[in-house]
Amino acid sequence: MTIGKMARGAIAGFAALGAVATATTAVADNEANDLMNATLWTQTSVEFKASSMAAFKLAEVMLDRALADKDWTAALEQGDNYQGKPPAVILDVDETVLDNSEYEAWLIKAKSHYSSKTWLPYINDAISNPIPGSKEFINYAKSKGVEIFYLSNRKAPGEEGTRKNLKKFGYPINEKFDTVLLRGEREEWGSAKGTRRAHVAKDFRVVMLLGDNMGDFVDARKANLAEREEILEKYKNNWSSKWIMIANPMYGSWEGASFDYKWRSSDEEKRQMKMDAMRYWKPKM
Ligand SMILES: [Mg+2]
Fold first, then answer.
1. Distance 84 CA to ligand 1 centre (A)
2. Residues with Cβ < 8 Å from 261, sequence gap 6 or more?
3. Half-sphere exposure of 138 toward its Cβ, with a 13 Å CA cutoff?
4. What spacing in Å lies between the alpha carbon of 281 and ligand 1's midpoint?
5. 3-class DSSP state for residue 89?
6. CATH H-level superfamily of 40-251
7. How far is the CA of 123 from the centre of ligand 1 (A)?
């Protein structure tokens, strides 16, 4: 046994003793919840912080390339004759710029699920922390004369809280025109983000997209797991150059795809569909 394994065993032993001592009060409040490890990782791990910092550092390198190449565009909605337009980057907000893990942690503790009834008050509290590396990248882009657009599926009534939260941490927001583009601000701005990317692309060369979800890059609503793999392959030259993905293990279209977007199924049914979506080792013994 290695020292590392011994240490882990000893720590587990002490933890078990502690658990026994408090078992009567702890058990009822600590029901298993599929959201817990992902939220813990996002909120507390240096592994998450280092990975998001790496993604944003890569974005800086790629931004330099993008600015040097007038033919470079990151938006599928860009259209023709864009080479002379001023450059812009489009960032998603939730789990790309702002860390909402405290909301997710509250969902676990309250044994609740995402709902717009609790999400809007959370937005209005404006307490989300920066995703590590995001501010440094945005400031770098701004220093290079790149316009910053925040394109979020937060709904229009959450705009004031969103702006307040971004400003609290010094994220630059150009107030000369709308650069915080939320869902439903215009009739055609639905949850698919393509119409809003097209809106930015009318006046700007979109040099980079940053997000935590496939929909932040390409409209692929209701794509199943196999179709998502095809999209990954189809745009393989865009990922990690024009399109920078931030890890979000807490929620996203990846989860919906695993149960065919049957969000109204019971927790048990969704859990079974997730189990069925995985591949398994078949031990030969
Ligand atoms: Mg997001």
1. 30
2. 222
3. 25
4. 32
5. strand
6. HAD superfamily/HAD-like (3.40.50.1000)
7. 14
Phi, psi of 170 (to 5 degrees): 80, 20
Please report, for the chain, the start and end positions of each structural domain, with discontinuous segments joined by +: 40-251, 253-285
DSSP element (H, E) containing 12: helix 3-29
CA of 213 to the centre of ligand 1 (A): 6
Distance 167 CA to ligand 1 centre (A): 18
Tokens of 264: 């109204």
For residue 5, report the distance from its CA to the centre of ligand 1, in Å: 37
Q: How many CA atoms lie within 13 A of 185 on its CB side?
A: 18
Q: How far apart are CA 265 and CA 270, in angstroms?
A: 6
Give me the torsion for CA of 255, 274, 223, 206, rounded to 10°: 30
Round to whole Å and give the CA distance between 49 and 202: 34
Per residue of the chain (285 residues), give pLDDT as tens.
444 444 554 444 444 444 444 444 555 567 899 999 999 999 999 999 999 999 999 999 999 999 999 999 999 999 999 999 999 999 999 999 999 999 999 999 999 999 999 999 999 999 999 999 999 999 999 999 999 999 999 999 999 999 999 999 999 999 999 999 999 999 999 999 999 999 999 999 999 999 999 999 999 989 999 999 999 999 999 999 999 999 999 999 999 999 999 999 999 999 999 999 999 999 998
Nearest-CA neighbor of 183 among 161, 159, 156, 158? 156
